Amino acid sequence: MEKHIHIVSSDVPYPIDYGGVIDVFCTVKALHGAGVKVHLHCFDDGRGQQPELDQYCATVHYYQRLTGHKCISPKLPYIVASRSCNQLREKLLEDNYPILLEGIHCTYLLNDERFNNRQTLVRLMNVEHEYYEQLCKTTTVLQPLKKIYYHHESRLLKNYEKTIADKAMFLALSEQDVAIYRQKLHARKVVCLPPMLPFTSVETETGIGCFCLYHGNLSVAENEEAAIWLLTNIFNKIDVPFIIAGKNPSPRLEREVNLHGHACLIANPSMQEMHDLIRKAQIHVLPSFCRKSRSVKLLNALFGGRHCVVNPTMVNNSGVETACHVATTAEAFQSIIIQLYHQPFDEHELLLRKEILAPFMNHGQLTRQLIKLVWQGEASYER
Length: 383
Fold this sequence. Notes:
This protein has 383 residues and is an alpha/beta fold. The chain folds into 2 domains: 4-197 and 361-380, 3-Layer(aba) Sandwich (Rossmann fold); 212-345, Rossmann fold, CATH 3.40.50. It has 14 helices and 13 strands. The strands form 2 sheets. Strands 3-2-1-4-5-6-7 form a 7-stranded parallel beta sheet, with helices on both faces. A 6-stranded parallel beta sheet has the order 10-9-8-11-12-13, with helices on both faces. β1 (4-9), α1 (19-33) and β2 (37-44) form a beta-alpha-beta unit. The longest helix is centred in the middle third of the chain and has 20 residues, at 144-163. 43% of the residues are buried.
């Protein structure tokens, strides 16, 4: 008998040009490859309809995300209320196929009693209330409205995540997130399912590159703060070429880059341009000041680039610590960068990296595990 599934995505998951959509797209593609009929539902926040998705989906539906005062709620987080959609819920009620909600952002329908007996799973991208609390702490006081928003959203998310914790099965990216959901939010059904990733081989080149690189979705506050921290604390002290590349940089970041003669900003590079930058860089400099379940930008760098210098928050028990150089202070970042800038990435390091990254390429096993969780539910759940 044919298997069908509804997948609800918080954004249009193509092109796969930032971490938030990579797992969604790869999940769709993997399920399609396993013979599952995928019915994809996307909230469009400006990316538009993408014909590429039609290759892997039985149907694709697009919905406009709400903005402004329409989605301000005393109880619902903005990221959830802005994705409330009657049209989506009515479409999902036309059949009884299981539903995979990609992120807390898409869980508005869990508050609708018509879905109480539906097989529903939620892919956790982060423990969202902790993530927004960290965003609040790392946002500069020069941006008071953002700081207030992140603090308020964190409070709403903590209460909201508790209220839905028993209404679905949760698929966490890490065992650390599993523990938090069980212990703090009292979720009964939560399992660890590592992310689906696009990598099939390590493409790192040996030898020496010609610049340092920070890349990411620069419209995300934590990435902008990390880029500015690098400019003002690291690359103002060492005279090596430094490139910042990514989506939608702000005027604030552009101004900061212009103050540094050996730094440059590449805004909205294509997928091929970003691939080339990752491949040609000598050092990937990737600090993070918000704990995340797993960093796709770091995995991108490890699969395609040479040396990676990170802080402890970036690696965060991810299993790739030994493939990175870990710095705990600004001075340590400077020292390691100076040491590595003229040091070739050799065959021994490449072999070690391939060994470390091998578990991240087990796509078939992850797909089988997901299918088992969706269609066997409680029977396949391990406490």
